[in-house]
Amino acid sequence: MLTGFRAHRPSAVRRALSSGLAEAGYFPGILLYLTYWFPQREQARAFALLETALPLTTILGAPVSGLILDHVHWLGVSSWRWLTDFGGKRRP
């Protein structure tokens, strides 16, 4: 959170790399847990639902991001910085 307010690029890069390393095992871990929770005959459907989440979030998130970029200029901060903070993405 609040990565858009970072002034120093090296600290932002370190934070982005550490966040990426921490999240690297997330998707394989979800797949592993799905194999525990669902019987083998239902696993394909569970995996497919998990895979459709990315396109759905893109379809829903792109217009919201556009609205933020066009209309959010609070406290004298650029809209792209607010978008970074609202989205929770770590960018230098």
What does this structure look like?
It is built from four helices and no strands. By secondary structure, it is an all-alpha fold. Helix 3 runs antiparallel to helix 4. The model has no long low-confidence stretch (mean pLDDT 79). Helices cover 74% and strands 0% of the residues.
Ends distance: 13 Å
Average pLDDT across residues? 79
How many helices? The count is: 4
Oligomer: single chain
Class from secondary-structure proportions: mainly alpha
Rounded to the nearest angstrom, the radius of gyration is 17 Å
**How many strands?**
0
How much helicity do the residues have? over 70%
- Main beta sheet: strand number and arrangement? none
Briefly characterize the structure:
The protein has 92 residues and is mainly α. The protein is built from four helices and no strands.
Secondary-structure blueprint:
Blueprint: H1 9-23, H2 26-37, H3 40-71, H4 79-87
Helix pairs in contact: 3-4
Keywords:
4 helices; flat
